[in-house]
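Dear U.,

For the methods section draft, I wanted the exact inputs and outputs in one place so we can describe them consistently. I've listed the two proteins in the order they'll appear in the manuscript figures. Please don't edit the token lines directly; just add comments below if something needs changing.

First protein:
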Amino acid sequence: MLFVVPFGFLLRVLTASQELAAVLLNSFFGATGVALVFLFFKNLTQKYFESLLLVGVFGMSISQLVFGSIPETYALTTCSIIASYILLLFCLQQQRVYSACWLAARLFSFGVTITNFAQTVICSVVLLFALVTDSSQFITVDLSLSQPWLLFSKLFKHFLGVSFVSPAPFINRIAPETGRSILSFFAQPLDYKLLGWAALTLWLVLSILGLLRSLQANCRSALLSAAALAVLFNMSLHTVFGTEELFLYTCNFTFPVLLLVVNPSLLKRGYFTWSLTLLIVLMGSNNLIVLGQIAAT
């Protein structure tokens, strides 16, 4: 994290405002995350328009919109994770392990959070497995979980739901110290308006289609292995950690989930690209309305 200090100091000098400098720096990393997603999918699919659609889905997700706006380290977290997947994709395409690049990626991710470091390690291990064995199969992971229903509810509510399409952000309680409604994306049932339900339903349908296609034998890859392991790692971690406000950690798994449920072969289908376009409109409208409600409080 120390490497951002000089940039923050320079912005503070130029703007004469510490708050404005923090907002600008965070917005820069939020925009960088979106640009990195485009770079990844452009190299994966070799298609410009389809890559823009996937960037739109990621950029309009409530996780990216919120954490790209709030001055914190979450936007940098997203950049670190996506950078690891870009390096994984590049190494797979070149069939080489660039040790210096992986060392830099590990140092970068470790400087952000330990969970980012774990995901970078997952990517590097999957790369070694793929290159040594020349295997395109998924790595099988056997997890023994004592609370399977809790895990399933989190999978639906946060890993496939709240991280992309936001429900109503407030619970029906007033904070006594501020007199304002309490903001919570977790401690309440899913409360969507018609627009939100339409976006969520379309997103889930497209996700299931993509996931089923990815599970077919001819679509298995080291990239999906890394994404699957990253999702399983985060699911396991958050059965015991950060359960009270899981939304704060959605930036750790939004991109791996998107990678897991998007299958390049479906992007060749006209109905799928049109559905992605509609999803961006519905999801973006819903999430921007929610952001407006938060800003108005």
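Second protein (the one for the lower panel):
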Amino acid sequence: MHNLKIVNHKIELMLLYNKYYFYLIIKEDFLLAKNIEKKILFFYKKKKYDIFIKIEINSIIDYQKIYFEYQQENLFSYKKILLIYIKEDYIEHHILDMLYKTYQYNDKNIILIIQFTNLNYKNNIDYIKQKLQKYNIVIINCHFLSNRETRNWIIKKMKKFHLHLTLQSINLLLHNYACNLLKLYNILKILNIINIHNKKITLQCVKNIIEDSVMFNIKNWIDSLFLKDTGRSLRILHFFQKNKYNISHIIQYLKINLIYLIHKKENNIYNNYFNQLEKQCIIKYDNITLTNILKNINYSKLYKIIKILYHIEINIKKNNIFFHWEYLKIIVFIF
């Protein structure tokens, strides 16, 4: 009997066993999860699983689509792959019910790949393991790579692209794109394109590519605030100002994340407090990082920040655009 297997973004061995027909992909890093998905699909398409069906789960009703596929037979080819995307943040009872029910079909002619696109694996992986430990299922945990793993990943891609980077350049890439393999991969592809003579790429060249390709989002800025990375916070803020970002959106994101941290600090989190849109704005951290962030945020700081946000909202009504950005810079230094 082959019980639950948990692997960290490496699937080749499990595929070679060819005794698993049920895969759960828990995504933290987008690129790792996408590569895992491609490997599983490629493997089973070679095994003549010719029918490919993708289902996005947006409500409990959508689970009926999965059960329906298990109950159907195709006249020409019965072997098929079901790729299911589930966007929920937490493992609720109805998800477990779906996992149990689909597993009971136990049909080797159907490969089921379920990807949790928003799930915080650190809060759920142990729970899933406990609930599914008796089942013949593979869980692929696509967590963010550590610095050492990311460095090895960069070196591996350098060989693939025939790039010659200095140690300083590798460290710079690691500093800027840790926990963002997709962006890192795109930067390496650009370096590969411009390096037509296979020469050693200078540190300045890498810096120029990074500066030319910078695209920040509001979560990046809030993350740099919470992690007390003042230099990065100011650079992102300058980018926002230069590109005329909507100041109201920035304030709204910050307020939602501050409220979330206050709730965490008070151990007073209610799943229904935030609506679905607000949940998408919240930055999730591992327990150690979150503990350090909460230690840094005291009520005196919170009072000053809330007061400044109030002044910004007043200035928005008065259309004093310059003061918006100056107030946000003050918030950076308060953190």
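Candidate sentences for the figure legend, describing the second protein: Residues 125 and 250 are 32 Å apart (CA to CA). The mean pLDDT is 81.

Thanks,
Y.
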